[in-house]
Amino acid sequence: xxxxxxxxxxxxxxxxxxxxxxxFTDDRLEVLQVLAVQAAIAVDHAHFIRRLDAARASAxxxxxxxxxxxxxxxxxxxxxxxxxxxxxxxxxxDVADAGLTEVMEDLQRIRMAGAHLLAIVTEILDLTxxxxxxxxxxxxxxxxxxxxxxxxxxxxPEIESKGNRLVADHGxxxxxxxxxxxxxxxxxxxxxTNASKFTTEGTITLHSRRTSEELVLAVEDTGIGMNxxxxxxxxxxxxxxxxxxxxxxxxxGLGLTICKRLCEAxxxxxxxxxERGAGSTFTARLPLRGGAxxxxx
Length: 297
Prior knowledge:
By secondary structure, the chain is α+β, with helices and mostly antiparallel strands. It has helices spanning 26-98, 104-132, 144-161, 181-197, 228-233, 255-265, and strands at 2-5, 8-12, 140-143, 165-170, 176-179, 203-210, 214-221, 269-274, 280-287. The protein is built from six helices and nine strands.
Protein backbone atom coordinates (compact mmCIF):
# COMPACT_ATOMS: atom_id res chain seq x y z
CA UNK A 1 0.00 0.00 0.00
CA UNK A 2 1.68 3.30 -1.10
CA UNK A 3 2.55 6.11 1.30
CA UNK A 4 1.62 9.34 -0.51
CA UNK A 5 2.30 12.82 0.79
CA UNK A 6 1.53 16.03 -1.11
CA UNK A 7 0.92 14.11 -4.31
CA UNK A 8 4.14 12.10 -4.39
CA UNK A 9 5.05 8.61 -3.25
CA UNK A 10 7.51 8.53 -0.35
CA UNK A 11 7.37 4.83 0.53
CA UNK A 12 5.13 1.81 0.93
CA UNK A 13 3.34 -0.05 3.70
CA UNK A 14 4.04 -3.78 3.26
CA UNK A 15 2.31 -6.54 5.25
CA UNK A 16 2.57 -10.33 4.71
CA UNK A 17 0.75 -13.20 6.39
CA UNK A 18 1.75 -16.80 5.57
CA UNK A 19 -0.13 -18.44 8.45
CA UNK A 20 -3.76 -17.95 7.40
CA UNK A 21 -5.84 -17.10 4.35
CA UNK A 22 -8.42 -14.32 3.98
CA UNK A 23 -6.74 -12.17 6.61
CA PHE A 24 -6.87 -8.89 4.64
CA THR A 25 -10.59 -8.27 4.61
CA ASP A 26 -12.18 -5.09 3.21
CA ASP A 27 -12.64 -3.69 6.72
CA ARG A 28 -9.01 -4.33 7.60
CA LEU A 29 -7.83 -2.82 4.31
CA GLU A 30 -9.74 0.35 5.15
CA VAL A 31 -7.93 0.49 8.50
CA LEU A 32 -4.60 -0.01 6.71
CA GLN A 33 -5.42 2.80 4.31
CA VAL A 34 -5.98 5.14 7.26
CA LEU A 35 -2.71 3.99 8.83
CA ALA A 36 -0.91 4.51 5.52
CA VAL A 37 -2.15 8.09 5.32
CA GLN A 38 -1.03 8.80 8.91
CA ALA A 39 2.32 7.13 8.32
CA ALA A 40 2.86 9.22 5.16
CA ILE A 41 2.11 12.42 7.07
CA ALA A 42 4.52 11.41 9.88
CA VAL A 43 7.34 10.49 7.50
CA ASP A 44 6.88 13.68 5.47
CA HIS A 45 6.90 15.76 8.66
CA ALA A 46 10.10 14.05 9.83
CA HIS A 47 11.76 14.84 6.48
CA PHE A 48 10.62 18.47 6.77
CA ILE A 49 12.02 18.82 10.31
CA ARG A 50 15.33 17.34 9.19
CA ARG A 51 15.56 19.79 6.27
CA LEU A 52 14.56 22.65 8.58
CA ASP A 53 17.25 21.73 11.11
CA ALA A 54 19.86 21.56 8.35
CA ALA A 55 18.78 24.95 6.99
CA ARG A 56 18.85 26.48 10.48
CA ALA A 57 22.33 25.13 11.16
CA SER A 58 23.52 26.46 7.81
CA ALA A 59 21.98 29.88 8.50
CA UNK A 60 23.54 30.05 11.97
CA UNK A 61 26.94 29.13 10.57
CA UNK A 62 26.60 31.77 7.87
CA UNK A 63 25.52 34.38 10.42
CA UNK A 64 28.44 33.50 12.68
CA UNK A 65 30.84 33.77 9.74
CA UNK A 66 29.31 37.14 8.82
CA UNK A 67 29.67 38.43 12.38
CA UNK A 68 33.27 37.25 12.57
CA UNK A 69 34.09 38.85 9.22
CA UNK A 70 32.49 42.18 10.19
CA UNK A 71 34.22 42.16 13.57
CA UNK A 72 37.63 41.53 11.98
CA UNK A 73 36.97 44.08 9.23
CA UNK A 74 35.83 46.69 11.75
CA UNK A 75 38.92 46.10 13.89
CA UNK A 76 41.21 46.43 10.88
CA UNK A 77 39.52 49.69 9.88
CA UNK A 78 39.58 51.25 13.34
CA UNK A 79 43.38 51.16 13.65
CA UNK A 80 44.20 53.21 10.52
CA UNK A 81 41.22 55.51 11.11
CA UNK A 82 42.46 56.36 14.60
CA UNK A 83 45.86 57.08 13.07
CA UNK A 84 44.34 59.36 10.42
CA UNK A 85 42.37 61.29 13.04
CA UNK A 86 45.38 61.54 15.34
CA UNK A 87 47.78 62.70 12.62
CA UNK A 88 45.23 65.21 11.32
CA UNK A 89 44.99 66.72 14.80
CA UNK A 90 48.79 66.85 15.15
CA UNK A 91 49.21 68.50 11.75
CA UNK A 92 46.39 70.91 12.58
CA UNK A 93 48.19 72.01 15.74
CA ASP A 94 51.48 72.43 13.85
CA VAL A 95 49.74 74.42 11.13
CA ALA A 96 48.09 76.65 13.73
CA ASP A 97 51.46 77.30 15.37
CA ALA A 98 52.95 78.19 11.95
CA GLY A 99 50.09 80.57 11.21
CA LEU A 100 48.99 78.72 8.04
CA THR A 101 45.34 79.43 8.59
CA GLU A 102 44.36 78.77 4.95
CA VAL A 103 44.69 74.97 5.41
CA MET A 104 43.11 74.79 8.87
CA GLU A 105 39.61 74.28 7.46
CA ASP A 106 40.75 71.42 5.20
CA LEU A 107 42.46 69.65 8.09
CA GLN A 108 39.34 70.06 10.21
CA ARG A 109 37.28 68.45 7.45
CA ILE A 110 39.70 65.51 7.32
CA ARG A 111 39.43 65.05 11.08
CA MET A 112 35.63 65.29 11.08
CA ALA A 113 35.27 62.87 8.14
CA GLY A 114 37.57 60.38 9.88
CA ALA A 115 35.64 60.70 13.14
CA HIS A 116 32.33 60.17 11.32
CA LEU A 117 33.61 57.04 9.59
CA LEU A 118 35.08 55.75 12.86
CA ALA A 119 31.68 56.17 14.54
CA ILE A 120 30.03 54.08 11.79
CA VAL A 121 32.68 51.36 12.07
CA THR A 122 32.26 51.33 15.86
CA GLU A 123 28.50 50.84 15.49
CA ILE A 124 29.05 47.90 13.13
CA LEU A 125 31.53 46.37 15.57
CA ASP A 126 29.11 46.79 18.49
CA LEU A 127 26.28 45.15 16.54
CA THR A 128 28.44 42.17 15.55
CA UNK A 129 29.50 41.71 19.18
CA UNK A 130 25.87 41.83 20.30
CA UNK A 131 24.70 39.38 17.63
CA UNK A 132 27.54 36.95 18.38
CA UNK A 133 27.02 37.23 22.15
CA UNK A 134 30.58 38.43 22.80
CA UNK A 135 29.82 41.95 24.07
CA UNK A 136 30.69 42.10 27.77
CA UNK A 137 29.06 44.53 30.20
CA UNK A 138 31.05 46.17 33.01
CA UNK A 139 28.37 46.70 35.64
CA UNK A 140 29.11 49.28 38.32
CA UNK A 141 27.25 51.45 40.82
CA UNK A 142 26.45 54.67 38.93
CA UNK A 143 25.63 58.09 40.33
CA UNK A 144 22.72 58.78 37.99
CA UNK A 145 22.62 62.59 38.38
CA UNK A 146 26.38 62.88 37.71
CA UNK A 147 26.17 60.68 34.61
CA UNK A 148 23.23 62.67 33.23
CA UNK A 149 25.19 65.87 33.77
CA UNK A 150 28.14 64.47 31.81
CA UNK A 151 25.86 63.41 28.96
CA UNK A 152 24.25 66.86 28.76
CA UNK A 153 27.69 68.51 28.61
CA UNK A 154 28.67 66.21 25.71
CA UNK A 155 25.56 66.63 23.56
CA UNK A 156 24.69 70.29 24.24
CA PRO A 157 26.95 71.79 21.53
CA GLU A 158 25.57 69.55 18.78
CA ILE A 159 21.96 70.10 19.84
CA GLU A 160 22.39 73.88 20.06
CA SER A 161 24.14 73.98 16.66
CA LYS A 162 20.76 73.25 15.02
CA GLY A 163 18.98 75.93 16.99
CA ASN A 164 17.44 73.41 19.36
CA ARG A 165 16.94 73.85 23.09
CA LEU A 166 17.92 71.08 25.50
CA VAL A 167 15.79 70.79 28.64
CA ALA A 168 16.68 68.57 31.62
CA ASP A 169 13.61 67.38 33.51
CA HIS A 170 15.15 65.38 36.37
CA GLY A 171 13.15 63.88 39.19
CA UNK A 172 14.23 64.17 42.80
CA UNK A 173 16.58 61.67 44.43
CA UNK A 174 17.70 59.80 41.31
CA UNK A 175 20.18 57.90 43.47
CA UNK A 176 22.33 55.12 42.02
CA UNK A 177 21.94 52.47 39.34
CA UNK A 178 23.83 49.20 38.94
CA UNK A 179 24.65 49.04 35.24
CA UNK A 180 27.41 49.57 32.67
CA UNK A 181 28.16 53.34 32.75
CA UNK A 182 29.86 53.42 29.34
CA UNK A 183 26.96 51.65 27.63
CA UNK A 184 24.34 53.73 29.47
CA UNK A 185 26.13 56.90 28.38
CA UNK A 186 26.24 55.52 24.83
CA UNK A 187 22.46 54.93 24.87
CA UNK A 188 21.64 58.43 26.09
CA UNK A 189 24.08 60.21 23.77
CA UNK A 190 22.71 58.25 20.81
CA UNK A 191 19.07 58.98 21.69
CA UNK A 192 19.74 62.70 22.25
CA THR A 193 21.83 63.22 19.11
CA ASN A 194 19.29 61.21 17.11
CA ALA A 195 16.53 63.49 18.41
CA SER A 196 18.60 66.52 17.38
CA LYS A 197 19.12 65.07 13.91
CA PHE A 198 15.38 65.09 13.22
CA THR A 199 14.57 68.35 15.02
CA THR A 200 15.30 71.91 13.89
CA GLU A 201 14.74 74.95 16.11
CA GLY A 202 12.73 72.85 18.52
CA THR A 203 12.96 71.43 22.02
CA ILE A 204 14.60 68.20 23.16
CA THR A 205 13.81 67.14 26.71
CA LEU A 206 15.63 64.53 28.79
CA HIS A 207 13.21 63.21 31.41
CA SER A 208 14.42 61.09 34.31
CA ARG A 209 12.65 59.61 37.31
CA ARG A 210 13.18 56.81 39.79
CA THR A 211 10.62 54.32 41.02
CA SER A 212 11.02 51.65 43.66
CA GLU A 213 12.21 49.15 41.04
CA GLU A 214 13.54 50.99 37.99
CA LEU A 215 15.09 54.10 36.50
CA VAL A 216 13.02 55.62 33.70
CA LEU A 217 14.85 57.78 31.14
CA ALA A 218 12.94 59.38 28.27
CA VAL A 219 14.13 61.53 25.36
CA GLU A 220 11.31 63.65 23.93
CA ASP A 221 11.64 65.85 20.84
CA THR A 222 9.46 68.16 18.78
CA GLY A 223 10.87 66.95 15.45
CA ILE A 224 9.42 65.36 12.34
CA GLY A 225 8.05 62.26 14.08
CA MET A 226 7.22 58.94 12.42
CA ASN A 227 4.24 57.26 10.81
CA UNK A 228 2.91 53.85 12.00
CA UNK A 229 4.84 51.92 9.33
CA UNK A 230 8.12 53.56 10.34
CA UNK A 231 7.39 52.84 14.01
CA UNK A 232 7.10 49.12 13.29
CA UNK A 233 10.60 48.99 11.79
CA UNK A 234 12.47 51.67 13.73
CA UNK A 235 14.52 49.20 15.81
CA UNK A 236 15.40 46.94 12.87
CA UNK A 237 19.08 47.08 11.78
CA UNK A 238 19.93 49.43 8.90
CA UNK A 239 16.47 51.04 8.97
CA UNK A 240 16.30 54.65 7.76
CA UNK A 241 13.48 57.10 8.44
CA UNK A 242 14.17 58.44 4.93
CA UNK A 243 15.53 55.57 2.78
CA UNK A 244 15.60 57.52 -0.50
CA UNK A 245 18.84 58.12 -2.40
CA UNK A 246 18.48 61.85 -1.72
CA UNK A 247 17.77 61.49 2.00
CA UNK A 248 18.51 64.47 4.23
CA UNK A 249 19.57 62.60 7.36
CA UNK A 250 22.87 60.77 7.86
CA UNK A 251 23.72 57.52 9.59
CA UNK A 252 23.49 53.86 8.65
CA GLY A 253 20.50 52.93 10.82
CA LEU A 254 22.27 51.00 13.57
CA GLY A 255 22.14 53.41 16.51
CA LEU A 256 18.61 52.66 17.71
CA THR A 257 19.07 48.92 17.17
CA ILE A 258 22.16 48.98 19.38
CA CYS A 259 20.42 51.11 22.03
CA LYS A 260 17.53 48.64 22.27
CA ARG A 261 19.83 45.61 22.45
CA LEU A 262 21.98 47.28 25.15
CA CYS A 263 18.90 48.15 27.23
CA GLU A 264 17.73 44.55 27.00
CA ALA A 265 21.21 43.26 27.88
CA UNK A 266 21.04 45.29 31.11
CA UNK A 267 17.65 43.77 31.92
CA UNK A 268 15.59 46.72 30.69
CA UNK A 269 13.53 47.84 27.72
CA UNK A 270 13.49 50.61 25.12
CA UNK A 271 10.20 51.72 23.58
CA UNK A 272 9.03 54.56 21.35
CA UNK A 273 5.93 56.67 20.85
CA UNK A 274 5.66 58.98 17.87
CA GLU A 275 3.29 60.82 15.56
CA ARG A 276 4.16 62.23 12.18
CA GLY A 277 4.79 65.96 12.51
CA ALA A 278 4.44 65.89 16.31
CA GLY A 279 7.80 64.50 17.47
CA SER A 280 8.91 61.30 19.16
CA THR A 281 9.61 60.00 22.66
CA PHE A 282 12.05 57.14 23.33
CA THR A 283 11.75 55.64 26.82
CA ALA A 284 14.38 53.42 28.46
CA ARG A 285 13.44 51.50 31.59
CA LEU A 286 16.33 49.95 33.53
CA PRO A 287 16.11 47.88 36.74
CA LEU A 288 17.94 49.55 39.64
CA ARG A 289 19.99 46.45 40.42
CA GLY A 290 20.73 45.44 36.83
CA GLY A 291 18.10 42.70 36.60
CA ALA A 292 18.79 39.15 35.47
CA UNK A 293 21.61 38.53 33.04
CA UNK A 294 20.10 38.94 29.61
CA UNK A 295 21.44 37.10 26.60
CA UNK A 296 22.93 39.34 23.96
CA UNK A 297 22.09 38.69 20.32
